[in-house]
Amino acid sequence: MQALDMAGHLIRRLHQHSTQVYTARTRGAGFDITSVQFAALDAIRANPGIDQAGVAGLIAYDRPTIGEVINRLVAKGLVERAVNDADRRARVLRLTPEGETTFERLLPIVRDIQTAILGNLTPGERSAFLALAKDTLRER
Questions:
Q1: Residues 52/70, Cβ–Cβ less than 8 Å
Q2: Which of 28, 92, 129, 137 could pair covalently with 49 via S-S, beta carbons 3.0-4.6 A apart?
Q3: d(CA 115, CA 104)
Q4: What is the pTM of this model?
Q5: CA terminus-to-terminus distance, the chain
Q6: DSSP labels, 28-79
């Protein structure tokens, strides 16, 4: 079996392709938001008041890394931390108004990127690919 036929190699190449397309399209549109930062914004937007550990769990990132991601989003003025009323030691996250606006402007671009990443596939093949990828990641 050649490396070109191995799942690990193909997944790595797909990740490289995905990252290149994402970066080119978002920077071309004037955004400086990584794909992980976008995923964090999406998780926070869908779950206002979530904590960093919750974001890490939702987007499958380790806690130390997500801490740095959140720090960058706070520094950019897109996310705010607040004291958790239920546990004064904990911090909850919310998008700022600028974060909401940025997310809304970025979302159509990110949706278009999804099609571009799998651009050589028909719509049916894209659906099958996504279903298989989800099945592969499903915990057993």
A1: yes
A2: 92
A3: 18
A4: 0.88
A5: 27
A6: HTT----HHHHHHHHHHHHSTTB-HHHHHHHHT--HHHHHHHHHHHHHTTSE
Range of the domain at 14: 3-137
Q: 44, 94 in Cβ contact below 8 A?
A: yes
Structural domain count of the chain: 1
Whichever domain contains 62, its CATH number is: 1.10.10.10
The CA distance from 28 to 35, in Å, is 14
For the cut 70, the answer to whether the pLDDT of residue 140 exceeds it is: no
> Do residues 40 and 67 touch, judged by C-beta distance below 8 A?
no
Mean pLDDT over 104-111 rounds to: 96
Residue-wise pLDDT tens digits, 70-102: 999 999 999 999 877 777 777 899 999 999 999
For the chain, counts of helices (H) and of strands (E): 6, 2
Answer for the pair 52, 63: CB distance below 8 angstroms, yes or no.
yes
Closest C-alpha to 91, from 41, 46, 52:
52
Scanning the structure block, which residue is given the tokens 């099945």? 135
| Residue 53 identity | A
